[in-house]
Design brief:
Elements lengths: L4 H6 L9 H23 L2 E3 H7 L5 H11 L4 E3 L2 E3 L1 H5 L8 H18 L1
Antiparallel strand pairs: 1-3, 2-3
Keywords: Proteasome
Protein name: 26S proteasome non-ATPase regulatory subunit RPN12A
Pfam families: CSN8_PSD8_EIF3K
């Protein structure tokens, strides 16, 4: 599914039968959620026009409704969608790199002794 979001969303227009529309709507929501999650991690903010284009909405109202429903931590101010508050909620942990290097080297020495 990676990278084929545009094709997934455009496939909704050419479904073979009307009963497929429900499932295509669910798939479109899943795709938008995935794009939103990636955008949140990649950018501090996007202009409303860029966010609308990336999330493939046809109007700013649809974008605003989506943000209000699915991502209440995002803020729309000065013509931009800010993700910063959502980023701050997940604290980063430091990786003890020296400890991992020492453990890996000791494992390598032990394996060498065994072999």
């Amino acid at each position: 599914m990676e990278g084929a979001y545009n094709r997934v969303l455009s496939a909704r227009q050419s479904v073979p039968h009307d009963t497929y529309v429900y499932f295509m709507d669910l798939l479109a929501k899943t795709v938008r959620d995935e794009i939103a999650g990636c955008s949140e991690k990649a950018y501090e903010y996007l202009s409303i026009a860029d966010a609308k284009q990336i999330l493939m909405f046809s109007s700013v109202k649809e974008l605003s409704d989506y943000i209000a429903e699915e991502h209440p931590k995002w803020k729309i101010t000065n013509g931009c969608v800010f993700f910063q508050e959502a980023k701050d909620s997940a604290p980063c942990k430091e990786i003890p790199s020296l400890q991992l290097i020492n453990q890996t080297l000791s494992y390598a020495k032990e394996l060498e002794r065994i072999v």
